[in-house]
Amino acid sequence: MNTEKARFNMIEQQIRPWNVLDPSVLALLAVVKREDFVPQAYKDLAFADIEIPLGTRENTSQTMLAPKVEARMLQELAIRNTDKVLEIGTGSGYMAALLAAKAEYVYSIEIEPGLAEVARKNLEHAGVANVSVETGNAARGWTKDAPYDAIVLSGSTPALPDTLLNQLKIGGRLVAVVGEAPVMQLQLVTRTDENAFNTTNIFETVVAPLAHVKPANRFVF
User: Fold this and answer.
1) Which of the following is catalytic: 24, 61, 92, 132?
2) pLDDT above 90 coverage of the chain, percent
3) What residues pair up with 151 in beta bridges, in sequence order?
4) What is the pLDDT of residues 148-198, one digit of tens each?
5) How far is CA 114 from each of CA 36, 85, 90, 111, rounded to the nearest angstrom?
């Protein structure tokens, strides 16, 4: 495989058509080596328009998001170099590396210890120093380092809990895929005041859920 050609095609054929036009995001995708964060068994699929399996825990498959979804999330967050960012679901560390290139610091939380260790090694190999990877369940937030300028969920969730939204600073942004298959939306949530949030639906998609996220309550007749 011609790696650089495949990377170029990923950006031009998958990512630009999804309205990812921010030059800083496109430039970042060209220099952060996605293939270095993909499991060895899937190296040939590093630039494919698919979710890549990272391992399983209690029959819940954890995946690396498709490149166009990661890129659109990054663009919508509009990360600044003074931002403190929370990432929920480290996975292989690739999204953390992208975030870290734009932010002051990234706190990334991974529920699976083995995967957290893989991510630490990947980030160290890539020379990324402004990310800490901790093990835990942050589906409802991570109070230790709150509040945050930006929050990103690297897996879907049926709903966004108030405990998580309240960890945003005023003016802070959150991106997440919200809903349950087959109806999910990538949402951008901005905290506009102490008790006010603005939510924008970006596009419809379906992605794998975060590990250990509880399903939404359902009506029973």
Assistant:
1) 61
2) 87
3) 86, 174
4) 999 999 999 999 999 999 999 999 999 999 999 889 999 999 999 999 999
5) 17, 23, 11, 9
Tokens of residue 33, six digits: 């080596």
What is the token pair recorded at 132? 């800490």
Residue range 115-153, pLDDT digits in tens: 999 999 999 999 999 999 999 999 999 999 999 999 999
Distances (CA, A) of 106 to 100, 148, 159: 6, 10, 23
For 12, list phi and psi in degrees, rounded to 5.
Answer: -80, -30
Measured CA to CA, the distance from residue 25 to residue 99 in angstroms comes to: 10
Measured at the CA of 103, the angle between CA 99 and CA 109, to 5 degrees, comes to 55
Return left, alpha or beta for 78; rule: phi > 0 is left, psi -120 to 50 is alpha, else beta: left
Amino acid at 133: V
Question: Using an 8 Å Cβ cutoff, are 45 and 98 in contact?
Answer: no
> Is 108 marked active-site?
no
